[in-house]
Amino acid sequence: MKRTVVAVLGFFLCLGFIGSGWLQGAEKYPVKPIECIVALEAGADGDVMVRPVLAKMTQKLGQPIIVVNKPGGGSSIGYRAIHDAKPDGYTFGWYSATLITNKLSALLPYDYHDFLFLGSHATYFPIIVASTKSKYKFDTLKEMVSFAKAHPGDVTLSVGSVGQSWWVAAMAFIDATGIKLNVIPQPGTGALTIAAVAGGHADIGVAAMGASKGMLESGQIKFLASLGGDRAAPPFEKYPTVKELGWDAVWESTNGLMVMSKFPKQYADILISAYKEAAYAPDFKKFAGELNARWEFIPPEQIVPTFDKRRTIVREIMKNAGILKEK
Predict the structure, then answer these.
(1) Domain, as residue range, for 87
(2) pLDDT value at position 186?
């Protein structure tokens, strides 16, 4: 009888150990490759910036992170794919400030309130540049603003498509200064904006530093001011911000990683840890500066409050422009 009891106890103890091992195996994460949806074309500024971060996260997690580019619709196609992905812990994605503008312009029925954030890794900011070939040649922003006030509508401004991030920055600047410009929206990226300014087809332009740098270095355009919260990195640190010049206009496009709202919290915590370590790596900080962006890790819980403030600005701008489509 005693032998039978001992045998039964041993059997259940073995089951306990096996069960414990099975649970530990089931709780391990990740156990297979993870997809990161990037709502940009391969080679775009945000795509180039995020790939080194994902590579470092791969090393930490022990599983490959596969980049899936889904560009188009002002990033709305990619955001929709992230939002609708299976919440099993194996799909997350990239975001920028277009996550704010998409709902306001009716490209999406949801915005940043409908996702969970892992943090941020860098922030792009636009700058204001002037042409050296147009009939109006401005050396400073104050000179341009004074001229524009005296000649409403004469100065032409090249900028990205209506409702998107750098267009918002341009409108914020126009509202803050009270000037009237002849705005020429471009159908695509900052490269088209800068080409128009460099060719003398527009007097000034608003675009990212990355798109502007080559033409600045060649002398085909002039740096007037930054629309970011801080000055640009060397060798452009001598140029002021618009706010330093007395006009309250700041716009930035934060880049980071997010997951769908039903993403398992225990997996999200693991991703956040790996992401933060990757973003804080000294070589990545250096890389961000080389891409003319400001390194910045914003903790997950601070993303929504940060975007709430920016949304207030965007909503008012779109309302004044008559393009607000939020229901």
Answers:
(1) 34-124+252-321
(2) 87
